Amino acid sequence: MDNIIVTQANKSAFPDVPQPRTLLTVRQFSDKHPAFTQGAIRNLIFLSENRKTSKGTIEGNGLNVALVRIGRKVLIDEEKFFQWINEQQEGR
User: Structural domain of residue 34, as residue ranges?
Assistant: First the structure.
């Protein structure tokens, strides 16, 4: 709890300093937000980029803006993921 207070104080004292992002693995994200199963998240990640088929190119779902890839590891930026969810609901 004290950590939250310190973070809020840092944001108000140093507004120009970028705050660290919350990056979670698929398992961590699923544990924190049980509405999203690991399989569902992995499917969204698979569909995030454009892919070519014999019938042409299929557009991705755009989730790649919320993904951070380090080698084979895929991390989810929690804030950007929920922004992406909101954009899907608005029909953008």
Answer: 20-48+59-92
